[in-house]
Design goal:
Length: about 240
Protein backbone atom coordinates (compact mmCIF):
# COMPACT_ATOMS: atom_id res chain seq x y z
CA UNK A 1 0.00 0.00 0.00
CA UNK A 2 1.39 3.38 -1.05
CA UNK A 3 1.27 6.58 0.94
CA UNK A 4 -0.80 7.93 -1.95
CA UNK A 5 -3.62 5.59 -0.86
CA UNK A 6 -3.84 7.49 2.43
CA UNK A 7 -4.86 10.58 0.46
CA UNK A 8 -7.59 8.94 -1.66
CA UNK A 9 -10.89 10.83 -1.61
CA UNK A 10 -9.64 13.40 0.85
CA UNK A 11 -8.77 17.04 1.23
CA UNK A 12 -5.09 17.97 1.21
CA UNK A 13 -4.32 21.44 2.56
CA UNK A 14 -1.39 23.44 1.29
CA UNK A 15 0.29 25.19 4.25
CA UNK A 16 2.54 27.82 2.70
CA UNK A 17 3.28 31.53 2.96
CA UNK A 18 2.41 33.65 -0.09
CA UNK A 19 5.19 33.16 -2.66
CA UNK A 20 4.94 36.70 -4.06
CA UNK A 21 5.14 38.47 -0.69
CA UNK A 22 8.46 38.09 1.12
CA UNK A 23 6.96 40.04 4.02
CA UNK A 24 4.20 37.49 4.71
CA UNK A 25 4.35 37.05 8.52
CA UNK A 26 3.31 33.40 8.02
CA UNK A 27 6.78 32.70 6.56
CA UNK A 28 7.87 30.80 9.66
CA UNK A 29 8.37 27.07 10.27
CA UNK A 30 6.70 27.08 13.70
CA UNK A 31 3.67 28.95 12.37
CA UNK A 32 3.26 26.59 9.41
CA UNK A 33 3.56 23.58 11.72
CA UNK A 34 0.70 24.95 13.88
CA UNK A 35 -1.38 25.67 10.77
CA UNK A 36 -0.74 22.10 9.59
CA UNK A 37 -1.75 20.68 12.97
CA UNK A 38 -4.98 22.71 12.83
CA UNK A 39 -5.97 21.58 9.34
CA UNK A 40 -5.25 17.95 10.22
CA UNK A 41 -7.41 18.34 13.30
CA UNK A 42 -10.07 19.67 10.95
CA UNK A 43 -9.90 16.57 8.75
CA UNK A 44 -7.21 17.18 6.14
CA UNK A 45 -5.76 13.81 5.05
CA UNK A 46 -2.45 15.36 3.98
CA UNK A 47 -0.60 18.65 3.77
CA UNK A 48 1.58 20.34 1.16
CA UNK A 49 4.56 22.28 2.49
CA UNK A 50 7.30 24.46 1.00
CA UNK A 51 11.01 24.25 1.93
CA UNK A 52 13.10 21.74 3.88
CA UNK A 53 12.85 23.76 7.12
CA UNK A 54 9.05 23.91 7.00
CA UNK A 55 8.83 20.22 5.97
CA UNK A 56 10.94 19.24 9.00
CA UNK A 57 8.76 21.29 11.37
CA UNK A 58 5.49 20.04 9.87
CA UNK A 59 6.58 16.37 9.83
CA UNK A 60 7.24 16.66 13.57
CA UNK A 61 3.78 18.16 14.16
CA UNK A 62 1.42 15.93 12.12
CA UNK A 63 0.97 12.24 11.38
CA UNK A 64 -0.44 12.54 7.84
CA UNK A 65 1.56 12.38 4.58
CA UNK A 66 3.47 15.55 3.77
CA UNK A 67 3.87 16.59 0.14
CA UNK A 68 7.10 18.57 0.15
CA UNK A 69 8.24 21.08 -2.42
CA UNK A 70 11.01 23.61 -2.55
CA UNK A 71 10.21 26.92 -4.24
CA UNK A 72 13.37 28.61 -5.43
CA UNK A 73 14.47 31.35 -7.81
CA UNK A 74 12.89 33.77 -10.26
CA UNK A 75 12.98 31.54 -13.34
CA UNK A 76 9.74 30.20 -14.88
CA UNK A 77 10.40 26.85 -13.22
CA UNK A 78 10.39 27.58 -9.49
CA UNK A 79 8.60 24.63 -7.84
CA UNK A 80 11.42 22.25 -6.88
CA UNK A 81 13.38 23.43 -9.93
CA UNK A 82 16.40 21.13 -9.70
CA UNK A 83 17.27 17.57 -8.71
CA UNK A 84 19.24 19.01 -5.78
CA UNK A 85 16.16 20.80 -4.40
CA UNK A 86 14.08 17.64 -4.81
CA UNK A 87 16.54 15.46 -2.93
CA UNK A 88 16.89 18.05 -0.18
CA UNK A 89 13.16 18.27 0.49
CA UNK A 90 12.85 14.47 0.48
CA UNK A 91 15.72 14.13 2.95
CA UNK A 92 13.92 16.67 5.17
CA UNK A 93 11.23 14.00 5.62
CA UNK A 94 8.63 14.43 2.85
CA UNK A 95 7.39 11.02 1.62
CA UNK A 96 6.05 12.70 -1.54
CA UNK A 97 7.93 15.43 -3.42
CA UNK A 98 6.13 17.82 -5.78
CA UNK A 99 8.24 18.82 -8.79
CA UNK A 100 7.52 21.13 -11.74
CA UNK A 101 7.06 18.73 -14.65
CA UNK A 102 6.39 21.25 -17.41
CA UNK A 103 8.66 21.09 -20.44
CA UNK A 104 10.17 24.54 -19.76
CA UNK A 105 13.95 24.89 -19.29
CA UNK A 106 15.15 24.14 -15.77
CA UNK A 107 17.88 26.10 -13.97
CA UNK A 108 20.20 23.06 -13.72
CA UNK A 109 19.77 22.24 -17.42
CA UNK A 110 18.47 18.78 -16.50
CA UNK A 111 15.12 17.19 -17.34
CA UNK A 112 12.21 16.17 -15.14
CA UNK A 113 13.23 12.54 -15.80
CA UNK A 114 16.71 13.32 -14.41
CA UNK A 115 15.08 14.69 -11.25
CA UNK A 116 12.96 11.54 -10.85
CA UNK A 117 16.10 9.39 -11.24
CA UNK A 118 18.02 11.45 -8.67
CA UNK A 119 15.18 11.05 -6.17
CA UNK A 120 14.94 7.29 -6.80
CA UNK A 121 18.73 6.89 -6.40
CA UNK A 122 18.95 8.74 -3.11
CA UNK A 123 15.54 8.55 -1.40
CA UNK A 124 12.36 6.50 -1.11
CA UNK A 125 10.15 9.51 -1.87
CA UNK A 126 7.34 9.34 -4.42
CA UNK A 127 7.14 12.02 -7.11
CA UNK A 128 4.10 14.25 -7.67
CA UNK A 129 4.39 15.95 -11.07
CA UNK A 130 3.01 19.50 -11.09
CA UNK A 131 1.70 20.11 -14.62
CA UNK A 132 -0.36 22.61 -16.59
CA UNK A 133 -1.55 20.47 -19.53
CA UNK A 134 -2.54 16.89 -20.25
CA UNK A 135 0.51 16.45 -22.53
CA UNK A 136 2.83 17.40 -19.66
CA UNK A 137 1.02 14.91 -17.42
CA UNK A 138 1.42 12.06 -19.92
CA UNK A 139 5.12 12.89 -20.39
CA UNK A 140 5.66 13.10 -16.63
CA UNK A 141 4.20 9.64 -16.09
CA UNK A 142 6.38 8.27 -18.91
CA UNK A 143 9.34 9.82 -17.06
CA UNK A 144 8.40 7.98 -13.87
CA UNK A 145 6.03 10.27 -11.91
CA UNK A 146 3.92 8.43 -9.33
CA UNK A 147 1.07 10.97 -9.48
CA UNK A 148 0.21 14.20 -11.29
CA UNK A 149 -1.32 17.48 -10.09
CA UNK A 150 -2.99 20.32 -12.00
CA UNK A 151 -1.04 22.85 -9.87
CA UNK A 152 0.45 24.82 -12.75
CA UNK A 153 -2.64 25.27 -14.93
CA UNK A 154 -3.18 29.01 -15.13
CA UNK A 155 0.48 29.77 -14.52
CA UNK A 156 2.06 28.78 -17.85
CA UNK A 157 1.72 30.05 -21.41
CA UNK A 158 0.38 26.63 -22.44
CA UNK A 159 -2.64 26.65 -20.08
CA UNK A 160 -5.86 28.69 -19.79
CA UNK A 161 -5.81 31.57 -17.30
CA UNK A 162 -9.03 31.67 -15.30
CA UNK A 163 -10.23 32.86 -11.89
CA UNK A 164 -11.48 29.41 -10.94
CA UNK A 165 -9.87 25.96 -10.91
CA UNK A 166 -9.16 23.97 -14.08
CA UNK A 167 -11.58 21.11 -13.40
CA UNK A 168 -11.57 20.14 -17.09
CA UNK A 169 -7.85 19.32 -16.86
CA UNK A 170 -8.55 16.98 -13.94
CA UNK A 171 -10.97 15.03 -16.15
CA UNK A 172 -8.61 14.95 -19.12
CA UNK A 173 -5.68 13.77 -16.99
CA UNK A 174 -7.78 11.13 -15.22
CA UNK A 175 -8.68 9.70 -18.63
CA UNK A 176 -5.11 9.83 -19.92
CA UNK A 177 -2.81 8.61 -17.13
CA UNK A 178 -2.81 5.45 -14.98
CA UNK A 179 -1.71 7.24 -11.80
CA UNK A 180 -3.58 9.32 -9.19
CA UNK A 181 -4.57 12.83 -10.31
CA UNK A 182 -4.51 15.64 -7.74
CA UNK A 183 -6.76 18.64 -8.37
CA UNK A 184 -4.91 21.77 -7.28
CA UNK A 185 -4.97 25.46 -8.01
CA UNK A 186 -7.65 28.05 -7.11
CA UNK A 187 -10.07 25.66 -5.35
CA UNK A 188 -12.13 27.85 -3.00
CA UNK A 189 -15.55 26.22 -2.50
CA UNK A 190 -17.14 22.88 -1.62
CA UNK A 191 -18.85 22.85 -5.03
CA UNK A 192 -15.52 23.18 -6.85
CA UNK A 193 -14.07 20.35 -4.74
CA UNK A 194 -17.08 18.12 -5.50
CA UNK A 195 -16.67 18.89 -9.22
CA UNK A 196 -13.00 17.83 -9.11
CA UNK A 197 -13.87 14.50 -7.49
CA UNK A 198 -16.66 13.97 -10.02
CA UNK A 199 -14.09 14.57 -12.77
CA UNK A 200 -11.87 11.81 -11.38
CA UNK A 201 -9.58 13.49 -8.84
CA UNK A 202 -7.77 11.23 -6.39
CA UNK A 203 -7.54 14.09 -3.88
CA UNK A 204 -8.10 17.85 -3.91
CA UNK A 205 -5.53 20.35 -2.67
CA UNK A 206 -6.69 23.68 -1.24
CA UNK A 207 -4.18 26.34 -0.25
CA UNK A 208 -4.67 30.06 0.21
CA UNK A 209 -8.44 29.84 0.75
CA UNK A 210 -7.73 27.95 3.99
CA UNK A 211 -4.23 28.83 5.13
CA UNK A 212 -3.39 32.39 4.12
CA UNK A 213 -4.90 35.16 6.25
CA UNK A 214 -2.98 37.62 4.09
CA UNK A 215 -4.52 36.32 0.86
CA UNK A 216 -8.04 35.99 2.32
CA UNK A 217 -8.00 39.46 3.84
CA UNK A 218 -6.64 41.12 0.70
CA UNK A 219 -9.46 39.57 -1.34
CA UNK A 220 -12.13 40.67 1.11
CA UNK A 221 -10.74 44.19 1.29
CA UNK A 222 -10.57 44.36 -2.52
CA UNK A 223 -14.19 43.23 -2.80
CA UNK A 224 -15.19 45.77 -0.16
CA UNK A 225 -13.59 48.49 -2.27
CA UNK A 226 -15.35 47.05 -5.32
CA UNK A 227 -18.71 47.21 -3.54
CA UNK A 228 -18.37 50.64 -2.08
CA UNK A 229 -16.58 52.12 -5.09
CA UNK A 230 -12.93 53.10 -5.01
CA UNK A 231 -12.45 56.58 -3.67
CA UNK A 232 -16.13 56.95 -2.74
CA UNK A 233 -16.64 59.82 -0.31
CA UNK A 234 -16.92 58.78 3.34
CA UNK A 235 -20.25 59.53 4.98
C1 LIG B 1 1.34 28.13 -8.78
C2 LIG B 1 1.96 27.90 -7.42
O1 LIG B 1 2.97 28.47 -7.11
N1 LIG B 1 1.31 27.03 -6.61
C3 LIG B 1 1.83 26.72 -5.31
C4 LIG B 1 2.15 25.33 -5.20
O2 LIG B 1 2.64 24.78 -4.28
C5 LIG B 1 1.11 27.33 -4.15
O3 LIG B 1 1.50 28.70 -4.10
C6 LIG B 1 -0.43 27.26 -4.12
O4 LIG B 1 -0.86 27.95 -2.98
C7 LIG B 1 -0.97 25.86 -4.07
O5 LIG B 1 -0.76 25.26 -5.31
C8 LIG B 1 -2.44 25.75 -3.74
O6 LIG B 1 -3.19 26.52 -4.62
P1 LIG B 1 -4.28 27.58 -4.11
O7 LIG B 1 -3.60 28.45 -3.07
O8 LIG B 1 -4.70 28.32 -5.36
O9 LIG B 1 -5.41 26.76 -3.52
Amino acid sequence: MSVLDDLAGGLVVSCQPLPDDPGDPMRDAYVQARVAAAVVRGGAVGVRVNSPAHVRAVCAAVDVPVIGLYKHGDADVFITPTAGHAVEVALAGAPIVAVDATDRPRPDGRTFADTVRALRDRTAALVLADVSTVEEGVAAVAAGADAVATTLSGYTAASPHADGPDVALVGRLAAAVPVPVFAEGRYRTAEQIDAAFAAGAHAVVVGNAVTSPLWITRRLVASLRGTTGAGAPQR
